[in-house]
Write a structure and sequence with these properties.
5-stranded mixed beta sheet, globular, single chain, binds pyridoxal-5'-phosphate, alpha/beta, Aspartate Aminotransferase, domain 1, Aspartate Aminotransferase, domain 2, 7-stranded mixed beta sheet, 14 helices, 2 domains
């Protein structure tokens, strides 16, 4: 019997930097810091596409191959960050184009779009996640070029039905892009649901060790959008360094284990705190109380991710206080690393943030779930902290 998709991906990612170097026997690839490569006696490149490292480093190839195969796409591109990957798509648009983005999304990209779109003559409208008619109303037939979706979405983990969004986008002649940073290909493969492009902040789960900033795009087809994004990388120059690309490759080998572990612990933490006297609400797509649960159950496989939010009973100061009292959860931004993180999201997003003031965002790592629960309990002041 062939392995399940999630197990097939385990094999794919475990072999991410598999190399069988006939000269040295090395089982993992070397890091090549060279920026330029000498040509042979016929003035030919010794390896196709490897000539100057703004155009690509040898470490990109295995990483892009694994991501492309995991997502079921036709091509993948690594970038210097998730933001570089995302902005390459918007910078490929022409003035007069229209884009549609969700109201709840990664704040860095939302803020950048608010500045970029008016200055470059790109129209932008926002839709309510989970309301199919809101998305359909916002898309403009023949004018909208990109529909942007983030699922689960920061930091309420609202779920967008990718298949429905793809149908709506395609009916109007637009492409659907999915920021799948939180789901990773282990839990959701957007192209299988109809998406045209998948974006990742590889800084998060893909690398998984909080030591690399990187991004990736995976394309369903090698088309004009792929060529335009490749052009942006080459000439805009937001390229990943060789050491970072190598670390990313190394990190991805354990993606499967890390993601499934985080899913399991996140669900346990949610169940523990769901009816807790100090907690107003737990937001996690794996809970039946979450508005996106039914779609998540259809669209995600193997788990609901390692990200959740706790709405504390109390005000902003009370929530911030909890975040500063945790010991195992580090009080820091970012997500998807092996170590658990907690943050007061409204503080990080600043004064225009739509995030509730009592919301704490948790990135669940690979520690023992019991230890993480005990840490939160002591931070909430519900058990002896000594
Ligand atoms: C972090 C993040 C980004 C931005 O990625 P960087 O690697 O920090 O540039 C985009 N989308 C989501 C969902 C993120 O969590």
């Amino acid at each position: 019997m062939p392995p399940k998709t999630s197990d097939r991906l385990a094999t794919l990612f475990a072999g991410a930097c598999h190399l069988d170097d006939p000269k040295t026997g090395a089982v993992v690839p070397p890091i090549e810091p060279a920026t330029t490569y000498a040509r042979d006696a016929d003035y030919a490149l010794r390896r196709e596409g490897i000539s100057y490292s703004r155009d690509g480093n040898p470490a990109y190839l295995p990483a892009e191959t694994v991501l492309r195969e995991a997502e079921g796409g036709a091509a993948a591109l690594l970038f210097a960050s998730g933001m570089a990957a995302a902005t390459a798509l918007f910078q490929s648009l022409v003035p007069g184009a229209h884009v549609v983005v969700p109201k709840v999304m990664y704040h860095g990209l939302r803020d950048w779009l608010k500045d970029f779109c008016p200055r470059f003559g790109v129209g932008m409208d926002t839709f309510e996640i989970g309301e199919q008619c809101s998305l359909r109303r916002t898309i403009r037939e023949g004018k909208t070029r990109l529909v942007w979706v983030e699922t689960p979405a920061n930091p309420t983990w609202e779920i967008t039905d990718i298949a429905a969004a793809a149908e709506a986008a395609h009916a109007a002649g637009a492409k659907l892009v999915v920021d799948s940073t939180v789901a990773t290909p282990i839990l959701t493969r957007p192209i299988e649901h109809g998406a045209d492009i998948v974006m990742h902040s590889a800084t998060k789960y893909l690398n998984g060790h909080s030591d690399v900033v990187a991004g990736a795009l995976v394309f369903k087809a090698v088309d004009g959008d792929y060529e335009a994004a490749r052009y942006q990388r080459l000439h805009g120059g937001a390229v990943l360094g060789p050491f970072e690309a190598w670390l990313l490759l190394r990190g991805m080998r354990t993606l499967h284990l890390r993601v499934l572990r985080a899913c399991d612990s996140a669900l346990r933490i949610c169940h523990h705190f769901e009816h807790h006297p100090s907690i107003e609400q737990v937001r996690y797509p794996g809970l039946e109380s979450h508005p996106g649960h039914a779609v998540a159950r259809r669209q995600m496989s193997g788990g609901y991710g390692g990200m959740l939010s706790l709405l504390i009973k109390g005000d902003e100061n009370a929530a911030r206080g909890v975040a500063t009292r945790t010991r195992l959860f580090r009080t820091a931004t970012s997500l998807g690393g092996v170590e658990s993180l907690i943050e007061h999201r409204a503080t990080v997003e600043g004064p225009n943030s739509p995030v509730p003031p009592n919301l704490l965002r948790l990135s669940v790592g690979i520690e023992a779930a019991e230890d993480l629960i005990a840490d939160l309990e002591q931070a909430l002041g519900c058990s002896d902290a000594s």
